[in-house]
Amino acid sequence: MAARPQRQRPPSSFDALDRPQDFSTYNPAIPPTRGAWDPEPDDFDDSPEHDEHDDFFSGSPGQGIAPQPSYQQDLPASSLATNSIRAPSPPASGPILDHSHLRPGKQAALLSHERTLELYRANAKKTQDPELQFEFATFMIDASKSLPIPPSTPGNLLQVERAMDKREELIREATALLKRLADRGHANSQYFLADCYANGIGTIKNKQDFDRAYPLFVLAAKHGHADAAYRAGTCCENGWGCRRESAKALTFFRKAGAAQHPGAMYRLGIAELNGELGLSRSPKEGIKWLKRSAEHATAEFPHALHELALLHERGIDNVLFVDFEYSTELLAQAAELGYAPSAYRLGECYEYGKMGCPQDAALSIHYYVRTERNIAAQQDHRDACFALTAWYLVGSPGVLPQSDTEAFLWAQKAAEGGLAKAMYAVGYFLEVGIGTPANMSEAVSWYKRAVEKGDKRAAQRLKGSMNQPLPGGPGAVVDRGEDGDGTGKGAKDKDCVVM
């Protein structure tokens, strides 16, 4: 199932709500310890009679919250996101470019997390705007994720329990509000609540609950929510919370694709290319969908860029021509969006001079790990990690220092990711003592793990050659070139082979 879409919260609409003129003297009554709309048995009563007595949706102030004083002039917005309060605006007669009034005064103070939540709740409760109520519900979900939980020790079990209870209380309050909004046809609330259930938020034992998520995805899709239509399609395709039905999945994917959802368009393209979801194989239609998806690619859905790059690398008879230059361009676009497989592929191209790319150590390492975001390696892309093992064994003057220790650590990271050849390499490093103290028992352990993954060389090492390590030649783990120190011709030509 696709990762949860990034939600971009709309600008806050608090500027339209009543706000006291001077926060430095503002001291509203302390709300009751219970939330303003804590879930009660009748919270799920959606009858008209119940709504008439629902002070939240009627917009009347709830008990325990003092009425807010009115004001005569607009004040600059208070930044709840940064927990700060700005001073009132200066008189209109003052010079426009005089920013001295923006300097913090003596009464400036940061709001605590709980106080921020109280103010947010008070403002949300005064409005009947479903978007503002939805924004507050999502704020509570986000706050529950970032709520600090102290480390569990024998002396603070009570504090840990209180923090966990506070987190659960925020989730209960948020999901109760989301359900009320969803029952009244608010598409964003329907989708967000479904996404919470699908990710185990607000569910029993925090387990994924697609039985509750799928119907909400369908409801939001009927209201034109593209993400919801895509998620409903994935549910139907995989049988999550419903029967596995390819025809229904296609319907949802096409609905989302018509709204230019990149994930849905990519799935339709792959289905057309491979004849999946009950479709006949049609490369031409598949390419059309992939191109549309690539035009709307995002950091969450960059897959069409990568797939098109691979297709242009090998071509399709009478459908798609080979174009290495365009292929590398597509890979670069996907890599810029943070897609690790594309970054790794470009690293290979510049390392070995593939697809018309020049051999360039700096660019190769750049795409393996030295980007700003460390795209490939930081996403635990095991092949990229193992490629860095080879680079660190020989080094690259002016780009990457030679380091056996780093070579071992990157090989270990790739091995822990399940790469068989990396497991064999780690075993060899431990056996010979490259970048780490020699440890025969650990070496045997890694060799055995590599054998379980089908590595034949590890099996040979276990059979009888472990007492005769081979630093080079056939069957060796590394070949550092003629000089053996990473500075001669072998290093320049990148002859280090991690097999």
Protein topology:
Layout (H helix, E strand, L loop, with lengths): L47 H5 L2 H4 L54 H13 L4 H17 L10 H27 L3 H12 L11 H13 L3 H13 L7 H13 L3 H13 L8 H13 L7 H12 L9 H13 L3 H13 L8 H8 L6 H4 L3 H13 L9 H13 L3 H13 L7 H13 L3 H10 L23 H4 L7
Description of the molecule:
This protein has helices spanning 48-52, 55-58, 113-125, 130-146, 157-183, 187-198, 210-222, 226-238, 246-258, 262-274, 283-295, 303-314, 324-336, 340-352, 361-368, 375-378, 382-394, 404-416, 420-432, 440-452, 456-465, 489-492. The chain is mainly α and 499 residues long. It has a domain at 387-499: Alpha Horseshoe (Serine Threonine Protein Phosphatase 5, Tetratricopeptide repeat), CATH 1.25.40.10. The two termini are 34 Å apart. Residues 1-102, 469-476 and 479-499 have low confidence and may be disordered. Keywords: Repeat. Residues 1-76, 462-499 are annotated as: Disordered. Residues 490-499 have a biased composition (Basic and acidic residues). This is HCP-like protein.
Précis, in short:
Helix content is 52%, strand content 0%. The chain is an all-alpha fold and 499 residues long. InterPro entries: Chitin_Synth_Reg, Sel1-like, TPR-like_helical_dom_sf.
